[in-house]
Amino acid sequence: MTVPVADERRTASPDETAALGEALAAALEPGDLLLLIGPLGAGKTRFVAGLARGLRARGRVRSPSFTLVNEYTGGRVPLYHLDLYRLAGADAWGLGLDEMRERGALAIEWGDRLPGSGRDAALTLAFAHAGGDDRTIAAHAKSGRGLALLERWRTLRTGAAA
Ligand code: ADP
Ligand code: MG
């Protein structure tokens, strides 16, 4: 029996994944927290490229694996892009997340490594490989802005062919 997973979207190309990010960007406000989880190559960074495009931010989105934080400015809302892959066990809040959150929206790859209750208001997006170029992206939220963003996720329309 196939059980449908609530709030899951499926994409068949990098462009479709970016288009979902581009569409969600219209809902982003300063303080918003997106936790992007799932294995390497699942499309988290592609999705952030779409977010930046949707915000009309300057510059190119690259994986912040080494720099830990990339900031994309010049758009409607500043976007902070983090990758906690190399931070297992460390206190990621020490990177200055609270200050970033006052200024802009945060998209955090490997965001499940973020400790504490500060992530309760996040929208979590779980990326998974689904064969070939197919990916699934399942959204979860517990409270506050996370639930509001989940509502937006449910009604996202993209320009890309579905
Ligand atoms: P992550 O940040 O999760 O490690 P990336 O976004 O850096 O993943 O890389 C995803 C890789 O998978 C890219 O090389 C991209 O071209 C490829 N790809 C193939 N199909 C898809 C898809 N449907 N969505 C996103 N990326 C895809
Ligand atoms: Mg990545």
Explain what you see.
This protein has 162 residues and is α/β, with parallel strands linked by helices. Helices cover 26% and strands 23% of the residues. The chain has a seven-stranded mixed beta sheet with strand order 1-7-6-2-5-4-3, sandwiched between helices. Helix 1 (14-25) packs across helix 2. The protein is globular. The site of adenosine-5'-diphosphate has 18 residues, from helix 1 and helix 2.
List keywords for this structure.
single chain; 162 residues; alpha/beta; Rossmann fold; 7-stranded mixed sheet; 4 helices; 7 strands; 26% helix; 23% strand; globular; binds adenosine-5'-diphosphate; binds magnesium ion
Outline the fold blueprint.
Elements: E1 8-11, H1 14-25, E2 33-37, H2 44-55, E3 69-72, E4 79-83, H3 97-103, E5 105-109, E6 123-129, E7 135-141, H4 144-154
Parallel strand pairs: 2-5, 2-6, 4-5
Antiparallel strand pairs: 1-7, 3-4, 6-7
Helix pairs in contact: 1-2
